[in-house]
Amino acid sequence: MATNTSAQNASSSRARQSRHRSSTSVSYIPPQSDSLAVTSNEAARNGPFVLAIRDCVTFFCMLNLFPTIFLPFWTTDPRDEFYLAGPNVFGLIALSIASVIPILLLLVALPAFVFLPGFACVLVIAGGTLFIRTVCKPFEGPCLVTSEPPTDEAIIARQHLLNSERWIFLNGCCVTGHALQKNLNLLSETFGRPVQGVHNETWGLLGDITECIIQRAFGFYSTETRIAYEYVKAYCLDPKVKKVVLIGHSQGGIMVSQVLDELFMDLPSELVAKLEVYTFGNAASHFNNPLRQPVDSTGGYPHILSPSEVMSQAVGRSEVVATASPTSMISPMTPLPLSQRAMYGASRYADPAAPPRSVTQGHNYTVSPYLPTRVIPHIEHYCNSEDMVTRWGTLYSVKNVLGNRFCGHVFIYEGASGHMLNQHYLKNMFPINPPAPNDWDGEIPFLDRVVEVDSATVTKRDVTAAGQLKILRKDSLPLDASYSQQSISKSTDRISSTSDFEGVRLGEGDLLREKDLAGAEGSRITVAMSRSAEGVQQSGKKVRDLSRLWRYMGGECPLD
Description:
- By secondary structure, the protein is of the alpha/beta class.
- It has a domain at 43-292 and 382-399.
- Helices cover 39% and strands 9% of the residues.
- It has 17 helices and 13 strands.
- Strand 3 (165-170), helix 6 (177-191) and strand 4 form a beta-alpha-beta unit.
- Helix 3 (87-115) runs antiparallel to helix 4 (118-136).
- The N and C termini lie far apart (62 Å).
């Protein structure tokens, strides 16, 4: 009887978990339109100490989410970070020691500053730092690491056909050399390319978090950032290299954003355009991607359609409008038949020796006219909504710091937790051997989930950008010009009807009201709202319709 009850409870638990997973949605935040480059990095508006304090306060306010970094923990897959066997165990033990000791030293250092002489405090801190390096150093490995080459001759030949591409990975916090090698191997196996990694050395949990804050607030470039920059720059300058794919995880996302900042200053936009950037659990506070040219260069406000105008123009529109990329490049937006191998990226669907083909062959697409052309054609950020690091990084920067420039598509796996690249991101979002549709068992794969456009965030970002634009227009007037609504732009007189914004919510559920459309000095402005051009085109699409990264799975090639 007890056995039957236990079995029923287990079955009930599995059913509840299945219903929870099947109800998990994917939120999608389209790229910033920002057609007149109104947004800017926070460093342009606030001092480094202000940013550092804000980062610390935000981090401590999210400490209740700290356990979500590790959950789910248990695994039987040797490729996962928390696999408790072999050399992985020793690395986890070393990282645990290197993470606990600094916290104890911090607790000791505070009273030491009060009761001990200054040199004694310095010795305590120096000794603790030396101890951490001594513990971590044996598990770090070389600075430059490459994914293990395949042994199958057919796969080797297939990769040889892709020798004009370079894939580079920057790892996150608390990663040993063994763990980095597993990250590179899984990336290579998933996307069918050799992947080079620049090892971001660890100083333990507290040390890595401190370094993240220093990098974000003070613009500190670590040794690994400088090395990665030199390699990426060399690849962009090499005429034989046609594409450079830069992948960042966690703290590696901060380093990627810094590398991009330097490339934008040093290289012509035509060379930087070789890049494609993808991040997981990104901890960066900004992500630049300059405009090639503004959409509206005639002055005044760009002509932004109200929801009613968009809907009226969308009716009768015959061509398919693609919105996967804020560029002038062709980007496919239609899901493929299940028979096509690239949908799952598994080698069972095609001969691995066959040359890479475009996964959208035979389809004709146009590009969305609503997004401006930017230097880097493709930037995508993948986030687990319950991951503390991405909450502190990408999601806080996009949803809370509205005037901040954070370019790229943002995909948020709602309800998903965990921060490890292999265990919590790649395996759940881009599995090598996903189940066939008839084997989903109530759990829809990430790529096949219908996205829900985060209209509240889109609305708030547009309202903030439009308000800032009005201030900039005022500041750019001649010194003897009297500031008036008429002297700025006639477009400020365009006031959308309240019905256009009915039901649109801001933040955590506040209804959008007419006063929220007020710009500087109370002058109303017109912005793109939730049912605007991008919302109309993206509603009802699946992740695979908007994502570009999945089109590389199994060694395939997207249509450029």
